[in-house]
Amino acid sequence: MTVRGVAPRPLEPKVALRAMRALIEDPDDTAQVFRVIRALSGNSFERLFQRVLADPAGSKVLNERRDILAVLQDRARLRDLPDGTLGREYARFLDEEHISAEGLVDASGGFDDSVFLDERARLLSRRLRDIHDLWHVVTGYQRDLFGEIALLAFTYAQIRNGGIGFIVLVAMLKEWREGYREGLALSWNAYFRGRRAGFLAAADWEALLEQPLADVRRELGVSELAPYTPLFSTAAAAAT
User: Partner of 202 for a Cys bridge, out of 49, 55, 115, 145, CB 3.0 to 4.6 A?
Assistant: First the structure.
């Protein structure tokens, strides 16, 4: 018997358009990303929840009610892991970018107004938010404009969320209009990398943190990323 994870959610195109305009004006306004995703997610999260439950590793993670944010916040432990492990590289990524594991919690507004019918669905929603920067490390995309769009394209290929797809589409059209051919090619490649990769949403990230990053990429089927030239927003460039 199928157990629903979340109540059906209506699409809110007007909310998504307002948030998308704000995001175009300020690409560093991460909160708008979450607003677009919520407004256009529809039933995509329910489908994802059922896929994760059907996956042996994913169902184990959800049934154990894990809180990966607490694990990722323990940066001292992650720094003590052997050099080259995913956890050590993740800690280095946070240090170099001057960000924290809980940063996305703040950016998202710290809440999700979805009506969860199964606590495991709420945990999955939070888990996907909290592992975003782990996906940066595994895929190799930086936190520049090209890298963020590419990671969203990779993520859309993985979880098929309509809000993420809308952001990627608008961003790629903007790249095309402004002549950013390298960024456009990077996003296309990211989508197909995501299609070829294993199911990252169901992965046992707690265990993967202690493995060499190269082994994690091999296990998850994440192909090698060709080097690209990052593009930073004016605000981000001024802050470096």
Answer: 55
Percent of the chain exceeding pLDDT 90 equals 90
* DSSP states of 37-85: HHHH-TTHHHHHHHHHHHSHHHHHHHHTT--HHHHHH-HHHHHTSPTTB
Looking at residue 203, its amino acid is A
- 63-84 pLDDT, tens digit per residue, is 999 999 999 999 999 999 999 9
Q: With CA atoms as reference, report the closest residue to 39 among 3, 9, 60.
A: 9
Q: Would the pTM count as exceeding 0.90?
A: yes
Task: Please count the residues of the chain.
Answer: 240
Q: Which residues of the chain have pLDDT under 70?
A: 1, 110-111, 234-240
Contact 32, 22 (CB under 8 A): yes
pLDDT, position 107? 85
Longest pairwise C-alpha distance within the chain = 54
